[in-house]
Amino acid sequence: MPSTSTTAVFPSVEEVAKSPAFSTAIWQLEPHQSGLLPVAAGRGGPVNISWEVHGDGPVKLIFICGLGFFKTAYQRQTMHFGHIHGSKYSVLVLDNRGMGGSSKPLVRYSTSEMAQDLLEVVDHIGWTSPQQLHVCGISMGGMIAQELGYAVPERISSLSLVCTAAKIENTTSFAENMVNRITMLLPKSPDRSIQYAAKAIFPAAYLAEPDNAVVPDESIPRCKIPAGGYGKFRNNYERFAAQEIRKQQDKDGFTKKGFLLQLIAAGWHHKSPAQLKELGDKIGRERILVLHGTDDRMISTPHGRKLIEYLRPGQGLIVEGLGHAPINERTHWFNELLESRCSLGEKLSGR
C-alpha cells in the first residue's frame, strides 16, 4: 500500500486554511509602542520602517527578521519576553525594508543598509546608552546583526547569531548546488512553495509532530483573545503553513519584488575573517553566541562552524538535530538560552 505519511504531514493549502485554528495563527499581541519611521535620508530614502516595542522593562532586546520574515515570525519570543516578562524586557521587532508594513523601494538592498535602518529606529526610541542592546538575529537577520555590531560595537551588550553566516558559500557538490539554485528560483504553486520552505527550514520529524506552540490565553498581558481562544493545529507543519499562507495573503506586505531584493542582500553579505576578529575584539567575545544546527538545510552547518572559528565567541553551539528555526523547534530551550545571554551581558555591563 502507498504511504500516507506525506499527506498527513503536508496537507494542502486549502485544507490548512479550513482548520478552525487558521484564523488565530497570528497572535494579537498589543505593543507598548509602535510606529512607521522614515529612515535612510541621504541613503536613497525616505524608507518607512514599521516597528513595535513590546514590554517596558530595562533590558533592551532586539529580534532581527530573516529573509521574507514579518515581525510576527517572532511572536513566541515577543510574547515570552515582551508580555509574560514585559516588566523585565523591552522587545523591539521590525519589518526590514522589503517586507510587511515597511517600504519596498526598488533599489539595491544590503545587510549593512538594513542595519543602518534598524539603528535609526533604535536611536528614535532612545536606546542609545553604551552596552545597552541585546541583539538576536536569525539567518539574514544574523547577517544584519553582524553589520549592526560592526557599526556600533560599543552599544552591544550581547550578540546572538543564530543559523547564519559570514557569507554564503557553496558547501555541496557543484551539481547539488546548481539543482538547489534552480529549484529555489522555479515558479511553484502555493502548496509546493510552502512545502519546499518547510523541508528546508525544519527537520522532517519536527514537521510531523503535534503542534508544539504554547498559545496565548487570558493570563497573557496585553493580548487580545479571540472568541473561542487561540486554536491548535494537528502538527507543526500545519502551523508553519498557516503562518505562511496568512503572510502570502497580504499582497501589499509580501511581494516577489521585496523578497528578491532581500535575497540579493543576503546573498551578497560578506564579513571577512579579519572583520569578524575585529567584531569579536570590539564587542568582547564573551558577549557573543553563535548557534547552528546539524539539520539546517537553509544555511548549512559549515557556515556556523566557520563563524565560530573566526569569531571565537564566548558560546559556540552546533546542536545535533536542530534545523533553521530554533525559535519554533525548541522555543522553551531557545528562550532560556537567550535569557542567559541577556543576563550575562547585563552582568558584564555592570547592571
- Order of the strands making up the biggest sheet: 2-3-5-4-6-7-9-10
N/C terminus separation: 63 Å
Low-confidence stretches: 1-8
Number of helices: 14
* Beta strand count: 10
Largest sheet: 8 strands, mixed
Give the topology string: H per helix, E per strand.
HHEEEEHEHEHEHHHEHHHEHEHH
CATH class: Alpha Beta
Shape: globular
* Structural domain count: 1
Indicate the CATH architecture. 3-Layer(aba) Sandwich
Radius of gyration, Cα only, in angstroms? 19 Å
Strand content: 15-25%
In round numbers, the mean pLDDT is 93
Helix content: 40-55%
**Class derived from helix and strand content:** alpha/beta
Please identify which CATH superfamily we are dealing with: Alpha/Beta hydrolase fold, catalytic domain
CATH topology: Rossmann fold
Kindly describe this structure.
With 351 residues, this protein is an alpha/beta fold. The protein has a single domain, classed as Alpha/Beta hydrolase fold, catalytic domain (Rossmann fold, 3-Layer(aba) Sandwich). Helices cover 42% and strands 16% of the residues. It has an eight-stranded mixed sheet, with helices on both faces. A two-stranded antiparallel ribbon has the order 1-8. Helix 3 links the parallel strand 4 and strand 5. Helix 4 crosses helix 5 and helix 7 crosses helix 9. The protein is globular and about 50 Å long. It comes from Hypoxylon rubiginosum. This is Alpha/beta-hydrolase.
